[in-house]
Design a protein that fits this description.
single chain, alpha+beta, two-stranded antiparallel ribbon
C-alpha cells in the first residue's frame, strides 16, 4: 500500500487522503488490525467489526513551469523541422541558412575571445 506521495522539482501531487482508521492495540485479539479486500473495498478489523477504509486518489502532474518548458520545446522542435524541410526544398533558403550557420560559428568563436579577454584582463 502506498502511504503517501510527495512532489519534487517540476512535479506536483494534489488531492489524496492520508487518514487511516485508528485501531487500539490488543494483544489478546490477534486478528485486530488485519486488513482485507472485500470486493473492491479495503477493510480493517477493529476487534469487533470490519471497517471500510476511505479510498482516495492522488493526482500527479507537472508543475506550470515544467509544462511551459515542454510546450516551448515542442514549438521550437516544430519550427526547426519546418525550417529544415523548407531549406531542403528551396536552394535560396539553403544558401541563406548556410550563411546563418557560418555567422553563428563566427559569433561563438568571437564570444570565446571576449570571454577569455575579460577573464585575462578584467576591467576596473
Amino acid at each position: 500500500m502506498i502511504k503517501g506521495l510527495m512532489g519534487s522539482n517540476g512535479i506536483m501531487v494534489s488531492a489524496g487522503d492520508n487518514s487511516l482508521p485508528y485501531i487500539n492495540q490488543n494483544s489478546s485479539n490477534p486478528i485486530q488490525g488485519m486488513i482485507r479486500i472485500w470486493g473492491t473495498d479495503l477493510q480493517v478489523f477493529d476487534g469487533t467489526a470490519w471497517i471500510q477504509m476511505a479510498s482516495s486518489y492522488a493526482t500527479v502532474r507537472l508543475d506550470q513551469d515544467a509544462q511551459a518548458l515542454l510546450e516551448w520545446a515542442r514549438l521550437e522542435r516544430t519550427k526547426q523541422r519546418v525550417r529544415e524541410d523548407r531549406v531542403r526544398n528551396n536552394p535560396a533558403l539553403k544558401i541563406a541558412f548556410d550563411k546563418i550557420k557560418k555567422a553563428e560559428e563566427n559569433f561563438d568563436l568571437l564570444e570565446k575571445f571576449v570571454q577569455f579577454d575579460n577573464e585575462e584582463y578584467p576591467k576596473g
